[in-house]
Amino acid sequence: MANIFMDMISKDPVIKNPYKVFEEHKAERYVLYGTGNLAEVVNKQFLNRGIQFELALVDDGYDVKENFMGIPVKKFNEFTSQIENEKKYSLVIGHAAGYRKRDALADTGFFKSVSYITRPFEHHKAFGRKFVEEHEKEFELLYNQLEDERSREILCAFVNSRVTEDGRYVADISNEDIDEFYNDVYRPTLNETLLDVGAYQGGSINRFLRVASVDSVHKVIGLEPEEKNFKLLCQNLNYIEEEKKQLIKIGCFDRKTKLGFNNKEDKCCRLDEESDTFIDVDTIDHICVNEKYITTIYIGISAAVLQILKGAENTMVSRRPQMIINLGTMKEEVYAIPLYIKSVVPDYKLYFRLQSAMPSRMFLYAIP
Fold first, then answer.
1. Which end of the chain is more exposed for a tag (fewer CB within 10 A), N or C?
2. Closest CA to 216 of 193, 235, 253, 190
3. Is the pLDDT of residue 122 over 50?
């Protein structure tokens, strides 16, 4: 296959930090579309810049609470049905499913402007074209080792979204939201043993079990190092019979040790060398040494993923699990992780898929 990856990457990107645009237009009247985790982050960023949203809007099917972070909440359709609101407000999208709607919302002409933030979270790593050029060899190698054209298209769109700080590259090729546990490259089989690294409060295991029912799985293994989250993980999964689950208060790394950990609620990427709080970590190979089968490994966290995989080398070679890894927040790891997997088990098939039109929702699938 020809080395065409760099030809697909924006050559002279014009970049402007979207938050600076908002700061330059503080006098605008802003409404926030969404009331979830992403909306919370966007609102905090606006408040830090002295900008307040007048309303938060939600679609039909969502509960209309009295307020969201002190912002009054209203139904989106109700708001847009009131002609007196036309052209008075600028809309900022604060939920992942809305990224794909941006152009359609702008085309209605109802709002003065419609915007979203390509990298709303601090741990979503920025990089420019210079970084891509410096690692052209690695990106080209990855591009050529991906299994299908869709994966190559997604890789280019993701890199372009980072290089330009413009999420439209991803939105333009993201036709619909997918289930990360049930799609064209991954589907659970009978008697699955799922290993969830960084299980948090159980959301990913619950999503997995919506597709692979509790009755059909052999076991779910949830690893979560933080005390508060681990307690909630146990509570949220108490409906699963004990013989079908194993929940362990531990993190993963390439060796058994303790790591500094920042447990502030506003931190998404919590490993912190300067913290005086520590978590216990160990290798997947050691944690799962007595597990006869590990059929799927899910890694949805955004810290030390390469080290985690290096601590799972024996598991990859001997058990050959399917792997699902969120790479949409990363930088060097975008190429380093899939190339490492290939170096350990060369016949793994590598795919990229977008869970939604939000650029950070890019998943790597390694399928034996």
1. N
2. 190
3. yes
Residue type, 80: T
H or E segment at 277?
none
Write down the pLDDT at residue 266.
46
Instruction: Work out whether the CA dihedral 162, 167, 173, 177 comes out positive or negative.
Output: positive
**How far, in Å, CA of 209 to CA of 217, rounded?**
8
What distance separates the 2 farthest-apart alpha carbons in the chain?
66
> 37: how many CB neighbours lie within 10 A of its CB?
14
Average pLDDT of span 44-50: 93
Answer whether 221's CB lies under 8 Å from 206's CB: no
Q: Which residues of 59-79 are buried (b: 16+ CB within 10 A; e: fewer)?
A: eeeeeeeeebeebebbebeeb
248-to-139, 211, 281, 285, 364 alpha-carbon distances in Å? 36, 23, 11, 14, 25
CA distance 226 to 261: 9
Question: Which backbone phi and psi does 286 adopt, to 5 degrees?
Answer: -80, -45
Name residue 248's amino acid: I
Q: What is the DSSP string of 170-189?
A: HHHH--S--BTTBSSS----
* CB burial of residue 110 (10 Å; 0-12, 13-18, 19+): middle
Q: Classify 365 in phi/psi space as left (phi over 0), alpha (psi -120 to 50) or beta.
A: beta
**Count of alpha carbons within 13 angstroms of residue 268, beta-carbon side:** 15
Q: Which neighbouring-strand residues pair with 246? A: 221
pTM above 0.85, yes or no: yes
Closest of 223, 274, 273, 229 to residue 251, by C-alpha: 223
Residues 259-297 have pLDDT tens digits of: 887 766 544 456 656 666 788 999 999 999 999 999 999
Q: Among 129-138, 216-225, 274-283, whose mean pLDDT is lowest? A: 274-283
Residues 6+ apart with CB under 8 A from 22: 28, 30, 46, 49, 51, 92, 115
- Sorted by sequence, the CB contacts under 8 Å of residue 63 that are 6+ apart come out as none
